[in-house]
From TrEMBL:
NCBIfam families for this protein: PRK11460.1 (NF008525)
Transmembrane segments: none
Keyword Hydrolase: yes
Family assignment from sequence similarity: Belongs to the AB hydrolase superfamily. AB hydrolase 2 family.
Highest rank taxon of the organism: Bacteria
Official protein name in the record: Hydrolase
InterPro entries: AB_hydrolase_fold (IPR029058), LYPA1-2/EST-like (IPR050565), PLipase/COase/thioEstase (IPR003140)
Keywords of the record: Hydrolase
Domain Phospholipase/carboxylesterase/thioesterase: 21-212
Pfam families assigned: Abhydrolase_2 (PF02230)
Organism: Vitreoscilla filiformis
Length: 242
C-alpha cells in the first residue's frame, strides 16, 4: 500500500500486484464522514482474492461538514439534504469523479469493462449514479448499503450492478435496495441483489462472501448477448448449419 501519484483527489491509497501489470481495477469509494484509510480492510480482502488487480481508494473530494479537523471526508454535503436536493448534489460531483476514474484507468492501462466500482453508503450512491450518467464507465458496480439518489428512468446496458444490503440497516433502509432492483429489472438492466438478515449499515463477512460469489460466477448479460449475436451470425452465414 502506498500513496498514488494520481492528483485529482486529495489523497489516494493503492494496492498493486506484487509482480506484473494489473489485469483489472477496483475503485473503493468510502461512506460519508469516513476516508480512504477506512477502506483498507476491504482492499486487503480484495487483494487476497484478486492478486493481479490494482485497487485504489481515494478520499472524498471535500472535507466532511461536521469534522473541523478536516480528516473525515465526504462526496457531497448532508447539510439540509432532502429527497429533492440530493440528486443535484450527487450530479455535481460526477464530472470530477469521472475525470479521476478515467485518469486512473489510463494510468494503469485498464479498460473500463475490467473496472469495478465498489462503494459503501455515500460511495455506493456515487458509484450507481456515475454509471447511469456514463454507461460503461465501469463494467461492474458493487453497491454496499447504498441507494439511488433518484430512481432511474433508464438502465445502463454496459454495466452490471451487484447490490448488497443488511436487512437491519437503519441508516439506508433495505427498502431502497429492493426498490432499485425492481426498477432495474423493469428497465431491462443487469443486476443482482443479496440481502443479509440482521446485518446493519456495514460490510460484514456474509456480504463479502456474497460479493465474491457474484464477482466469480455472474456472467454479464452483455456477454450473453454478444455470444448469442455471434452464434446467430454464424448460423446465417455457414451453409453446413442449414
Amino acid at each position: 500500500m502506498n500513496t498514488s501519484s494520481l492528483d485529482a483527489s486529495p489523497h489516494v491509497l493503492q494496492w498493486l500486484p506484487a509482480q506484473g501489470a494489473p489485469a483489472q481495477l477496483f475503485v473503493l469509494l468510502h461512506g460519508v464522514g469516513s476516508s480512504a484509510a477506512n477502506m483498507a480492510p476491504l482492499a486487503q480482502w480484495l487483494q487476497a482474492q484478486f492478486p493481479q488487480a490494482a485497487i485504489l481508494a481515494p478520499d472524498g473530494f471535500d472535507a466532511f461538514d461536521y469534522d473541523p479537523s478536516g480528516q473525515a471526508r465526504q462526496w457531497f454535503s448532508l447539510k439540509e439534504v432532502t429527497e429533492d436536493n440530493r440528486p443535484a448534489r450527487v450530479a455535481a460531483v460526477l464530472p470530477r469523479l469521472l475525470a479521476w476514474l478515467t485518469e486512473a484507468q489510463q494510468h494503469f492501462g485498464i479498460d473500463p469493462q475490467a473496472t469495478a466500482l465498489v462503494g459503501f453508503s455515500q460511495g455506493a450512491i456515487l458509484s450507481m449514479a456515475l454509471v447511469h450518467e456514463h454507461d460503461g464507465a465501469a463494467g461492474r458496480v458493487l453497491a454496499f448499503a447504498g441507494r439511488y439518489a433518484k430512481l432511474p428512468d433508464t438502465a445502463p446496458q454496459l454495466t452490471t450492478f451487484h447490490l448488497f444490503h443488511g436487512s437491519a440497516d437503519a441508516t439506508i433502509p433495505v427498502q431502497h435496495a429492493r426498490a432499485a432492483i425492481e426498477r432495474l429489472a423493469a428497465l431491462g438492466g443487469d443486476a443482482t441483489i443479496d440481502i443479509v438478515q440482521d446485518a446493519g449499515h456495514e460490510i460484514n463477512g456474509a456480504l463479502l462472501n456474497s460479493a465474491l460469489f457474484r464477482l466469480r460466477s455472474h456472467i454479464p448479460q452483455r456477454t450473453w448477448r454478444a455470444a448469442l449475436g455471434a452464434a446467430q451470425a454464424q448460423n446465417a452465414t455457414d451453409p453446413d448449419l442449414h
